[in-house]
Amino acid sequence: MKIKLSINKKKQELDILPGEKLLDVLRSRGYHSVKEGCREGNCGACVVLLDGKPVNSCLVFAAHCQERQITTLEGLGSPGSLHPLQEAFVQSGAIQCGYCTPGMILSSKALLDENPDPSDDEIEIALDGNLCRCTGYVQILEAVKKGAKLLKKVKKTGDKAGGK
After folding, report:
1. pLDDT for position 76
2. What is the pLDDT of residue 164?
3. How far apart are CA 107 and CA 48, in angstroms?
4. Which domains does the chain have, with CATH numbers?
5. Contact 46, 29 (CB under 8 A)
6. 55: β partners
7. Local structure of 108: helix, strand or coil
8. What is the pLDDT of residue 78?
9. CA–CA separation, 71 vs 102, rounded Å?
10. Which residues are 109's β-sheet partners?
11. Of 147, 138, 141, 160, whose CA–CA distance to 86 is shortest?
């Protein structure tokens, strides 16, 4: 079956199987930031933004994404031009093995899009479905707060990287 959708702001028409999960469709097309973890919606490794909201792509049928917007980590920044949240995660040491990082960053982006100045509790709630076995979450919490500041600076100055 064919579906039309947008992945990282690029309109695409994909040929998929009716029961195929979004996780598998994205990975088979080279979006390797979408990680396969538990396949049960418990770990957050496969989080993408669907119309701006974080979802576990292992639980979403690709067919349900007809005419929808999907954002993966590849859609936020590039190695030479990191998104402010990516920069904040690097600066804060919130990346260790990196397996959870895409889901953490995308969940954080969704939070900051809705609430540019979240409390620690609000950050913890937004990241509740994302498991990390390496950092202990302290650096991740710091990265989200730093990312919020960098994003405010970007909006104020127009400096894409937040003025490192």
Report:
1. 95
2. 44
3. 8
4. 2-75 (3.10.20.30), 84-157 (1.10.150.120)
5. no
6. 48
7. helix
8. 87
9. 11
10. none
11. 147
- Reading the block at residue 106, the tokens are 């995308």
**Number of residues that make up the chain:** 164
> Exposed e or buried b for every residue in 45-84, given b needs 16+ CB within 10 A?
bbbbbbeeebbbbbebebbebeeebbbbbbbbbeeeebbb
The predicted pLDDT at position 135 comes to: 81
- Residue holding tokens 């390797």? 32
Average pLDDT along the chain, 164 residues, taken 10 residues at a time:
98 97 98 96 97 98 98 93 96 93 98 97 96 90 97 83 48
Which residue in the block uniquely carries the two structure tokens 């707060």?
145
* Helix, strand, coil shares, percent, the chain, to 5: 40, 15, 45
